Amino acid sequence: MFDSIQKLTVNGGGSIDGNGNIWWQNSCKKNKKLPCKNAPTALTLYKCNNLVVEDLTIKNGQQIHIQFQNSANVRVSGLNVTSPEDSPNTDGIHVTNTQNIQISNSIIGT
C-alpha cells in the first residue's frame, strides 16, 4: 500500500503476482461453509495525488488487483490485469472517492 504519496510514478514493465490461488481455495465464494473475510488487495494507492501508473502487469489478485482510494489526478496507461475465469469476484480496478482519473490503453480480464 502507498499512503499519502505525492507525484508517484510506477512504470517500467514490471509484474505483480497477488498469489490469489491460495486465497481462492479458502474463499467462502467457492466453499459456502467457510467464513467470508476481506481479501488483501495486490496494490492500493490511498490518499495519493498526481499519480502515473504505466506499463504494469498485475495478475491473480486475491480480490482487488489495483485500488485507487481518496486520491486525485491519476493517469493509468498500459495496465494489464488478469486472473483465471474461475477466480471468485476479482475486481480489476477499484476506484473509490478519487477525482480526475484517466485509464487508457489497458487490458482488464478478471
From TrEMBL:
Belongs to the glycosyl hydrolase 28 family. Its main location: secreted. This is Polygalacturonase-like. GO terms for biological process: carbohydrate metabolic process; cell wall organization. InterPro entries: Glyco_hydro_28, Pectin_lyas_fold, Pectin_lyase_fold/virulence. Keywords: Cell wall, Cell wall biogenesis/degradation, Glycosidase, Hydrolase, Secreted. Gene3D superfamilies: Single-stranded right-handed beta-helix, Pectin lyase-like. Pfam families: Glyco_hydro_28 (PF00295). GO terms for molecular function: polygalacturonase activity. It is found in: Secreted, Cell wall.
